Structure formats: structure tokens, C-alpha cells
Amino acid sequence: MSWITDFIDKQTERAVRKVAHRHGRRSALARIGTGLIGGALLPMLPFDRSGQFGSAHAAGGGGAKAGGAATEDATKCEYWRYCAIDGFLCTCCGGSLTSCPAGTEPSKVSWVGTCLNPKDGRQYLISYNDCCGINSCGNCLCNNNERERPGYRLGVHNDINWCMANNNSMFHCTTSIIVGVA
Ligand code: ABN
């Protein structure tokens, strides 16, 4: 009957070794290693950046688009700096591209777009600061939406009253200030 006890011993030893292999220190280290390598590789995987490089979606205007008709008239919605603006042009409201009309003050926060300057072929960062303090100007409404995205992605959405952080949050018109080269 010793062969039966031998057989049982062998089976038990095999089972114990299997459990030790699965739950032992070495397999724990192997699992930690896999996690670390996986964590390092994860950021290298392809990522949807379509919000950043989306194509133009003009509504009620149209900025300077590649190959399209550009204008040098800053009172026209087609002027290149307006590629992602949403508001009344301050150039039609007694202000300029960069300054607010008398009686208003620039918004403390703004929406920044990226527009192609057809003259030098470079992309510029444009800060769309609203002018605040008196009611809507009503002239030259311009709504261009290059790279803009819906409101649930606030950082890439332009349909917002940027006067919200000012003492007087009444929106009058919008300026288009170059803040850098992209
Ligand atoms: N950024 C101009 C604006 C003001 C109020 C509402 C929508 C857009």
C-alpha cells in the first residue's frame, strides 16, 4: 500500500507547488512588473486629438481658410483673426481689433483660438476678449468656429459670455488680440 501513500504525497506536493507558484513572491513581482511596463506604454498608445485639429465649421461667417477668399477689412467677419470668434465685432462698435469701445472694459477671462494669417502662412493664437459693461452692440455679429467644440468641452467652446468674471457682466462686443504664434 506504500504506492498509494507515495501517489498521494506526489499529488499533494504538485498541488502545493502550483498554489505557491501562482501566489508566491515571484509571481507577485511579475504582476507588478507587468503593471509598471503597461503603465509606461499606455501614454504611447494612439489618442484621439480630433478636438485640437478639427476642420473649420463656419456658421454665419467664415474666417480665412486655406485657399479661400481672405479680406483685410477688420469690420468683415471674413477677416482672418475672426476664425473662432463668437460675438459682435468691436471694430463695428466704436472700438478696434484690440481695444474696447468707450464705456466698456475688457473681460477678465477669454476664449483663445488659433487662426491662419494668410499673409505669412503662420498660425496665431488669438484671444477673444469680450468688452463688458453696457448692453449688446448689435452690429456685425460674427460666429466662426474653427476648432471649436460643443459646450460640454468648455475649454474648446466659444459660445460663452466671457464678461462673467467682470463686475458688470453685460456683453457689448468682442476684440481679437494676437497673443502668440502657434
Ligand atoms: N463671447 C460672446 C458671447 C456673449 C454672450 C453669449 C454668447 C457669446
Topology of helices and strands:
Elements: H1 2-23, H2 25-41, H3 50-53, E1 86-88, E2 105-106, E3 111-117, E4 122-128, E5 130-132, E6 141-143, E7 171-174, E8 177-181
Antiparallel strand pairs: 1-6, 2-5, 3-4, 4-8, 5-7
Please identify which CATH superfamily of the largest domain we are dealing with.
Answer: Methylamine/Aralkylamine dehydrogenase light chain
Task: Give the CATH level 1 class of the largest domain.
Answer: Mainly Beta
Q: Largest sheet, described in full?
A: 3 strands, antiparallel
Distance between the termini: 85 Å
Helix content: 10-25%
User: What is the overall pLDDT average?
Assistant: 80
| Beta-strand proportion | 15-25%
- Look up the CATH topology of the largest domain: Electron Transport Ethylamine Dehydrogenase
Q: What gyration radius follows from the Cα positions, in whole Å?
A: 30 Å
- Catalogue the unreliable spans: 45-68
Number of structural units classed as domains? 2
Bound molecules: benzylamine
